[in-house]
């Protein structure tokens, strides 16, 4: 279990993480989603004691990471960057890591087997592809056979087969009671494996919920509307409490209002519609709406254009 309590980090005048409070619980894969620069890596680094919080705290099984008695047995982490010295081989790197952390050296061979790097165990890490480095980083994370895994964008650079493999690895460990915390900037990468999603943007929590709940909420409610009077319709919909995004010229995307009601409001307002339809399977779209810069009509109505 990982607990974040109003976790905050400033780098000079940049607030990278802003009062983030969430629990990452055992027996689940928790996806940590947000666009580039949202604060995912900084949050993970603070959990691991690699960055110190400006305010707030993070706890691993109830204590700060630095107070863990056997850190690598408790938490395995793969944070972006290269694992191991380029002159090392996977075997020498993992054995040294095991020895310096009082982990039986045989675990090095087991971890190599688990990530499928046995055939290159004696090759220099310097010549490895990004995908092989990712596997090696994951092997290092697995070395102490920890109950908690923190993986920062582990699918970067992996081919389709390796992505399936890592999803399976996360699933198996979560089903065995592990706590898996995995970041990505792509909804599609984690949607299939995460039981729970935490979405952040600009360092702040946007939403967190079980994946199925988010899918249901968003896939049923995203309505696409095309009309030559988009601005006028957006005004009407906003007045009635819908969330409206400008998706292009004459094209609106609406959340939080049934299709029939949108049609009725347009009819009552004398607004011609060219399309009114539900977008299915659009968790990815909803994610983009929540996290990407989008122009929104609420700002236009109040006289300026605001991105959020
Ligand atoms: N060491 C640092 N010094 C100054 N600013 C930093 C530092 N590390 C991160 N930042 C800034 O903090 C913010 C959050 O960055 P962070 O790397 O945590 O985001 P992220 O969600 O992991 O993004 P990415 O997916 O691109 O890695 C960004 O504005 C980034 O530029």
From TrEMBL:
The keyword Electron transport does not apply. PROSITE patterns: ABC_TRANSPORTER_1, ABC_TRANSPORTER_2. It holds the Pfam family ABC_tran. It comes from the Bacteria. One of its GO terms (molecular function) is ATP binding. Keywords: ATP-binding, Nucleotide-binding, Transport. Residues 2-227 form the ABC transporter domain. The keyword Acyltransferase does not apply. Belongs to the ABC transporter superfamily. This is ABC transporter ATP-binding protein.
